[in-house]
Amino acid sequence: MPKIKLIIEGGAMKPGPAVAQALGPLGINMGKVMAEVNAATSGFKGMNVPVEIDVDAKSKTFTITVSSPSVAEMLKKESGLTKGSGSPLEVKVANISFEQIVSVAKGKHASLLAKTLRSSIKLVVGTCVSLGIMIDSKEAKQVEKDIDAGIYDKEIQQERTETPDAKKKELAAFFVQRKSMQDKKAKAAEEAKAVEEAAKVAAAAAAPAAAAAGTPAAPGAVPAAAATAKKEEKPAAKKK
User: What is the DSSP pairing of strand 3-9 with strand 48-56?
Assistant: First the structure.
């Protein structure tokens, strides 16, 4: 049986070149396939989902297997992001709660190479590092250390996945300040770069004009004409 592997947005599989190329030659009803895939992945709206379609070429029937989205996709969903940070160490793009980390870890635990929920949580936190996502208003790397230090033992043991409303507000307020600082820093860097580029352009434009005007050479330099004359000058003959 041919197996077709696709990555589609949950509940939003649409006809397109990739789908037609994969399913067209098999002679199955693409409309029916898409309808069943969308129904099976409707719980993962807004996330990219791995889907495998097993097709029986003789009977023109098929079965669909849906895998859970990647940890990164689930974190982006939790954070309301479409993509992670381009510079995750300097630029943070979200601030989520530890409870949300536990929720993602529980959802992915069965497919992760981790023996315990604590290990799955650490893997999820590690993905936050690469995406530029803060946790409980802290750097994800710091949260990794806090887990090892036992600071989150209670939350892990109780498997808390619901974030209190008061905490949500605190996290949001903190990130507003953090983003403001990041934006100011980025703007200052852009302005400094613009000044530097302008100086380079001005220097490049001034160089030909300076050469044409015969701008004096640097202190200590010997003019070219004088140097030539000095070489050609012959010592006076000595009187006998």
Answer: antiparallel
> Which tokens belong to 159?
């498997």
Q: Which residue from 85, 108, 88, 105 is spatially nearest to 97, judged by alpha carbons?
A: 105
Average pLDDT for residues 28-33, to the nearest whole number? Answer: 87
First to last CA, the chain: 116
User: 132 exposed, middle or buried (CB, 10 Å; 0-12, 13-18, 19+)?
Assistant: buried
Distance CA 199, CA 88 (A): 31
* Measured distance CA(152)–CA(105) in Å, rounded: 14
Mean pLDDT, rounded, of the chain: 86
> Which domains does the chain possess?
3-66 (3.30.1550.10), 71-185 (1.10.10.250)
Give the tens place of pLDDT for each residue, 67-107.
889 999 999 999 999 999 999 999 999 999 999 999 999 98
Task: Check if the beta carbon of residue 10 is closer than 8 Å to that of residue 46.
Answer: yes
In the predicted structure, residue 150 carries a pLDDT above the cut 90? yes
179 closest CA partner among 100, 98, 94, 97? 94
Q: Calculate the CA dihedral of residues 43, 45, 47, 49 and round it to 10 degrees.
A: 50
pTM strictly above 0.85: no
d(CA 185, CA 147): 31
